[in-house]
Design brief:
twelve-stranded antiparallel β-barrel, 2 helices, Outer membrane protein beta-barrel domain-containing protein, Porin, mainly beta, about 250 residues, single chain, about 55% strand, signal
Length: about 250
Amino acid sequence: MGNLKIWGTTLLLVTLSVFSIAQTESGSTDSLQSTVTQTPLLSLSGDIKSRHTWRGGLTCSAMNLQPTLNLRVKNFTLGAWGCYTVDNSYAEIDLYATYKLGNFSASLLDYYNPIEGVKKNDVFDYNQDSTRHLIDVNVKFHGTTDFPVYLLASTLIYGADKKPDSNSNRYSTYFEAGYTCHLRANQQVDIFLGGTPHKSYYATEAAIVNIGMTARQNIQVFGQYNLPLYISMIVNPKYENIYFILGITIL
């Protein structure tokens, strides 16, 4: 597993290399139509949320900013997502690579939590005994017109997901299914259900840990701008927790 020590650096270098190719390709034509249809496609987005949960667990209780950067080359996407609270109580940055084929996609993700306020962090520490990274592999079925349900299967294959008695990996697994209901032109509701099939990072036994819904609507501000607003109600039956979260997409 020593090669995992260069995962973050390798992903960053590949991202920069692909971006350089993108710049060369987009500069080879002055046609607007050609430029629009060129790949790769660089996309930026950002959210403001009242708090943040992940798979039924609360990761931070403070208001936070969540930037996202994606670089897509045909069916391949390299990306980065972050979460930073306004009170510096929590930070997270995730790197990921996704390949999409038809209605299916496979992803490799590296979750990492730096310590805010520390001059020197350990971003390159992938030692099984001390790393704060989590390496996740997941497969997702995105649904079809006739079957508009997504299905997700995820396993944490390395990192800070260890059995307390042996310090070996637990291979925590998580399954989720979801459905999107379009109410009208500017409203939709996402419904989801998730759980773990064994004792894992998510629960002390096989359990449903994530049931909820997210309602989305564009609200008009200043009479001309549409601001995407969403509200999530999330319940964790295993730990009898409930979360009510407000979010706004600003980009």
